[in-house]
Amino acid sequence: MSVEKFDLHKVHEKFTESLAGDDDVYVDQYLEAFKELYKFFQLMGTVFGFVSSDVKEKVEILEKLRAKENAESFLTIRTMMEYERESNLLSKKDYVSGSRTLLRLHRGLDFIQEFLRRLGELEGDGKTNGVCQAAYNDTLAQFHPWLIRKGANVAMYALPNRDQLLDKVCMDATVAIKLLPDMLSVTRDVYNRTQDLYTKYDLHGLP
């Protein structure tokens, strides 16, 4: 079954819509952007197998929380953190925490934005395996056990050059390269806001 191509414009649009007030992020739009990023991971095949299944699972957990009776508590990242903290849910044994679940997506976002940033700096025939390994080792790798790190780095050797990779995953590679700086700018804003909220509520260390 073929996977629908990755739409960079949609990621840009949904992350832009997710920006709430001065320092918050709407969960629904954040998840819509992530569902588009999930297509990117899928189109990359086994190279990103270590992260794609995890992304799908985490998005589904958060969508279920947004469908519950107390959905308003999960409207934004801030309301979710405050609700779970004030209700003493973060350490509750049989509770699947939205804050903990989102933290996994947040770490994945750091990796994907760093990879795409470095990808955008390459020439058309530039090798992508080295920049992918560097982006991974600088971000997500620190949260993975040695075996996953080893497997991920080995799989990345098979990546094609920049233009071949973009042709494989994007609807239009030329448009994607033009859109990339704006998309990365809003993605960085979303990432920084989320990072600041995890810092404010002291939740970076959620198990």
From TrEMBL:
<feature type="domain" description="Glycolipid transfer protein">
    <location>
        <begin position="26"/>
        <end position="170"/>
    </location>
</feature>
<comment type="similarity">
    <text>Belongs to the GLTP family.</text>
</comment>
<protein>
    <submittedName>
        <fullName>AGAP005990-PA-like protein</fullName>
    </submittedName>
</protein>
<dbReference type="GO" id="GO:0032691">
    <property type="term" value="P:negative regulation of interleukin-1 beta production"/>
</dbReference>
<dbReference type="InterPro" id="IPR036497">
    <property type="entry name" value="GLTP_sf"/>
</dbReference>
<dbReference type="InterPro" id="IPR014830">
    <property type="entry name" value="Glycolipid_transfer_prot_dom"/>
</dbReference>
<dbReference type="GO" id="GO:1902387">
    <property type="term" value="F:ceramide 1-phosphate binding"/>
</dbReference>
<dbReference type="GO" id="GO:0016020">
    <property type="term" value="C:membrane"/>
</dbReference>
<dbReference type="Pfam" id="PF08718">
    <property type="entry name" value="GLTP"/>
</dbReference>
<dbReference type="GO" id="GO:0005829">
    <property type="term" value="C:cytosol"/>
</dbReference>
<dbReference type="GO" id="GO:1902388">
    <property type="term" value="F:ceramide 1-phosphate transfer activity"/>
</dbReference>
